[in-house]
């Protein structure tokens, strides 16, 4: 069994459901310490965070990832127990196999080989590993970066090991993500009898046209390489259940996935203007769960990763900005160049999550080749 597979199986055996790291970071710290990394733990509430760094020179290439996994779902639907990593037909099955403990194992073995061959490499290598990516993400990467900022330790480049590939390994890399903004809206009417509407104020009638206009709004036409911004209503509720009562309020919420062509402020303004134009009496609460970020395709990191994939695997990756949020957004806020590159993402958060065993080895060699490209010569 290869070093990468052995290590992946070791950390996949730990039931580290968010935010419980369950000892994974201890294993990681031991391995990194043995090859000259200095380890700092940043525990916060229930969350374990690990910062490891080798070297003091700039630039710093930081590997980023998380040891926490989402719950297993219906355990009976797993063909093998989710925390007993099992190989079948060339695939390694376990919760976290693709998202993203295997990537962490690949990063570590890549560093082990790299440092053996290039003990006095240029720049520095770092790891930022959290157990709070799948949860609220408040006490994880974001909190550690705040500390690192105060210590002037913000890295230059960041490779996030999230599952980015679709058909073949690294056929897709993520160079940005859309932002995510949610609005909780309460439309305020006045409850009454349906036979006496002049004594009541119907929030459903008040809201219909405005909500339709919000749903039909074109926000932007995309911002290359981002898809166009989308808005989706997720919940709507009004009424007491009775058919003779005009309800007092209507509650709804919607979420936007938006490109860097827009700011949260411009979106908020547009929505509120529509509500006001339709004379809707409302209360609105906005929640920004991630600003959009984008690492230019001409940046050193995107160029290096793209060229390395072409050289090692023989094909050119797609630069994508699709999918949900990731911890990459927190690095980007500090001006760090961020690329997400990891295994096939078709089984993440599902039962029978897997990673292709051969691609796991390739991933480790790809990370090593990127280290060489950025920190040697
Ligand atoms: Zn993940």
Can you offer a commentary on this structure?
The chain has 377 residues and is an alpha+beta fold. It has 2 domains: 3-177 and 292-375, Zn peptidases (Aminopeptidase), CATH 3.40.630.10; 179-290, 2-Layer Sandwich (Alpha-Beta Plaits), CATH 3.30.70. It has helices at residues 3-12, 24-33, 101-117, 141-150, 203-216, 264-277, 300-313, 328-332, 357-375, and strands at residues 38-41, 49-54, 60-66, 86-88, 91-93, 124-130, 157-160, 172-174, 176-177, 179-188, 192-193, 230-238, 245-246, 249-258, 282-290, 293-294, 318-320, 337-340, 354-356. Helix 1 packs antiparallel against helix 3 (101-117) and helix 3 crosses helix 9 (357-375). It binds zinc ion (ZN). Zinc ion (ZN) binds next to loops.
Give the SSE layout:
Blueprint: H1 3-12, H2 24-33, E1 38-41, E2 49-54, E3 60-66, E4 86-88, E5 91-93, H3 101-117, E6 124-130, H4 141-150, E7 157-160, E8 172-174, E9 176-177, E10 179-188, E11 192-193, H5 203-216, E12 230-238, E13 245-246, E14 249-258, H6 264-277, E15 282-290, E16 293-294, H7 300-313, E17 318-320, H8 328-332, E18 337-340, E19 354-356, H9 357-375
Parallel strand pairs: 3-6, 3-7, 7-18, 8-17
Antiparallel strand pairs: 1-2, 2-6, 4-5, 5-19, 9-16, 10-14, 10-15, 11-13, 12-14
Helix pairs in contact: 1-3, 3-9, 5-6, 7-9
This protein binds zinc ion.
Zinc ion (ZN) binds next to loops.
